[in-house]
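One record is kept unedited as follows:
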Amino acid sequence: MSIITIATSKGGAGKTTLAQVIGGRVAEKGYRVAVIDADYNHSLSSWLRNFGTYPITVEFELDETKIIPLAERLGETHDLVVIDTAGAATQATVFAIGCADLVLIPCQLSSADIVEASKTSQLVQSAEAMTRQEIVARVVLTDYQPKTIISGHVEEELEACGLKVLRTRLHRLVAFKEMTFSGKVPKSGLASELVDCMLDDIARLGALPFATMKFAS
């Protein structure tokens, strides 16, 4: 069992998109996936329930005292638990970070996103001190525009802040927006390739229950 928490103190950075593509693609591979929607907007749970595309167990939970027990219970019967947190530094987010095998911090190409990614990284450090164990965390660049001045600047700023960035970036692609209408993770084209590469990166970090499996073709 593995727990991946997606967290940032900034709304609109791409948390739900990350949760959708990770949960959906892993479920497509036949693994048992559960998600905990700890976001006040419950966008992830609504997406999963409205379309019913994937056999994913969905739990909506805002009570910080219930996050860890719920994750542990789901972990007993599922291969992967994904926790989508609120776009704010809540106590529930801290608990979700503390029980994670990997924390993914989505970050778009803006100064505000860099600031909030740094703040979320500090939350990870606080959770490490609280649990007295290392928590692996990576920034994931979302809505990414390659080979632009702003993308290079953002990456330099993240490095200057001491933040580790996942190798795969999720580009600004219509296919990721279309998920909100189709209920399906892209299965062809660049978007699909990026999702598979990202899951390979996550597997290499030991945060998937099938670390030797190669997703990308």
Notes: The CA atoms of residues 9 and 90 lie 8 Å apart. Residues 2-204 form a domain with the Rossmann fold fold (CATH 3.40.50.300).
